[in-house]
């Protein structure tokens, strides 16, 4: 054994990178994003833009704050994303008539049409994981529970 390598049974093993939940999540997220990047490149979308589009495909005509709440993003992060999607012709931003402080986001015809092209992405991601649907659903539920448990701790 190398003198610089500690045995896995030592108390310091808790500080080994491969023992860290955060690193497992981080590295899995990196791998997942690489797959998404390849698939979304065909739609000329980034991953954050795809998330915005998912929100809008589920419910159109929503406020920026509604989107931010769904995606856990603040307005300062969302605004440039929305501007790029607007420039690309995928959505429109308009001030609300009832309250001009609010900005309403509406899909354009091009944004709506993009949904059809994106239909294959969830299945392609599932195939890339090489996991069965039950394992993926269970993992998703566990991650949502973890997020819920941690949200008030920061």
From TrEMBL:
SMART domains: HTH_MARR. Signal peptide: none annotated. GO terms for cellular component: cytoplasm. It comes from the Bacteria. GO terms for molecular function: DNA binding; DNA-binding transcription factor activity. One of its GO terms (biological process) is response to stress. Keywords: Cytoplasm, DNA-binding, Transcription, Transcription regulation. It is found in: Cytoplasm. Residues 18-154 form the HTH marR-type domain. It holds the Pfam family Staph_reg_Sar_Rot. PANTHER family: ORGANIC HYDROPEROXIDE RESISTANCE TRANSCRIPTIONAL REGULATOR, TRANSCRIPTIONAL REGULATOR, MARR FAMILY. This is MarR family transcriptional regulator. It comes from Ewingella americana.
